[in-house]
TrEMBL record:
Protein source organism: Cyprinus carpio (Common carp)
Name listed for the protein in its UniProt record: Choline transporter-like protein
Pfam families, A to Z: Choline_transpo
Signal sequence segment: none
Protein's UniProt keywords contain Nucleotide-binding: no
GO function terms (MF aspect): transmembrane transporter activity
Amino acid sequence: MDGFRSFPATPAHPTRKYWAINPKRPKREWKPLEDRSCTDLPWFLLFTLFLVGMCGICGFTIMTGGAARLVFGYDSYGNTCGQRNEPIEGVRLSGLDHTDRKFVFFLDPCNIDIIQRKIKSMALCVSQCPTEELATYHDLKRFAMINGSELCSYELPGHKYPQLPERFEKCPKLPVPESKALPVFNRCTPVDISCYAKFAEAVVTFVSDNSMLNRLIAGVAASKEIIVGLCLLALVLSMILMVIIRYISAVLVWILTALVVLGSLGGTSVLWWLYIDYRMTMNETMTKDLRETEEPIDDMKTIKDHAQGLLIYAVSATVFTGILLLLMLFMRKRVALTIALFHVAGKVFIHLPLLALQPFYTFLALSLFWVYWIMVLLFLGTTGNPEKNEDTGLVEFRLTGALQYMTWYHAVGLIWISEFILACQQMTVAGAVVTYYFTRDKTKLPVTPILSSVLRLVRYHLGTVAKGSFIITLVKIPRLILMYIHNQLKGKENACARCMLKTCICCLWCLEKCLNYLNQNAYAATAINSTNFCTSARDAFMILVENALRVATINTVGDFVLFLGKILIVTCTAFAGVLALNYQRDYTEWVLPLIIVCLFAFLVAHCFLSIFEIVVDVLFLCFAIDTKYNNGTPGREFYMDKALMEFVENSRRSMAMEERGRSKRARPKEDVELTEVKAMAPGTSSA
């Protein structure tokens, strides 16, 4: 509350304001500058060089034949199918001309290494895949003579297949299944994929031996239409919630509060009612069966399991509802602040409707990059020097020496560039919101503030985004390494080591979250004053520290309300799921469909509300800056919206009333003490 009245009235205050930002530019103000300059140019050059290195890895895989070997395939002697090859030293049958042999054929396509996830079979380049099942070596000979496609090793003549003693080792395993070539990768794949059942053999065995898991999977299969319908319902509810946030933000908090309370209480009540109804039905059925048969019921344990499962759902819902009500009880006094903040955020979306599409653009950019990254990773798997496997006698391509570091470089690129794309979204949203906030006349906003923000980012601030994303990468990489070590040592390390690993992972995760929040505010400061990353981070950090109570209140309540919105969508979807699945009396089969639906509902709600959360966080910083350097007097007018002005004035009046109340409560006590002194004074003198 101190932040609402700590407005220095000295004439030197503006000078001190500018000095806190940049002592070299004393006339600069906290508002978007028209005259901008490039920020963190060395980091932009460093990131550009890193991108060149990523493209260089892709070019290296293409130039050395790794891409061609992946796409066109190669045989067990190192020859790429569909082209002329150079001989490999020490490898026989290498350097063959396979211009007419464009398809890869495996002698034993069903010999699959489940652990290594590859086919342990000799591969040959053939001119045509077998179009029918070949049951004998005479069929292999006939196929070779008619189609000119020899399916045995290159040194064996096709017309002698039935007589050659080497046919058992160097010819395909009989019977040869009918195959078709994959559309792009030119691999002969059996039409009947039953031989690939080895991949699922362990899973099938586990499912068949585990009756509970079998029932859960059966429940998902039986409820697939309901699951799809509930997922669509979650999508519709998320869109409706965005409409509510956009148009009626003033009453959103109260609506959310009431609906979440009613939804939680209603869902809990329904679960308890279903449990009681099921117990009563179960008792009546058991009593009737015992009277008729006078023998114990065989499926007694199954019935009790159903009742126990429903009881667990009801108790869990009750605990969740209790915790939620307690949280809302403690947060009730901060609802007014949330209403004002969401009102302004709703206006931002009214003036900048394209903000709602930013997550989709970011997802599209991430998807395209991930596809490229996976493609290059596959290229790397077939790139390198040819090496003959002594156990199998097959030729494999492996990266050796310094080339091995390309894989690590490529892995770092996945993290850094992904964080860079996410940071670009934050900078774009921050630039648009800052432009909106610090424009007094909203009719003078740019025609496309989002596009203007993107152009400013590309022209001036890519270096700042690169530096901020690199800092996140430096924290994320050690955390991922520790997580990998923890998974590899699971069950082998002692309790102390396991605790230390988990502690380090947790600390790095917390540090990453804090840096993400600071980076987001640093991007907003850069969007305002066009300063480099370190300066912007320092300025934003000082602003947030000076307004810690106010910013913490806004941040806590805002995130809590957004969380309530996500919970509302999940609760309504789960409640609809309970009603839709009620026809299935086997309540133990509810759990997996409900988990799938609730997870999807939460992800959809998060996608829709994440952009709103970024807008709210940027408004936090703008609001804190506005209240620090302006007090509403002529020449120092607020930039904030009227809703926030009303909140500031109401907070001041509330604080003043509390101070007067404390003064009034203190005065009677002082008057009583003064009266007692005066009453004692005559008696003392007379004595």
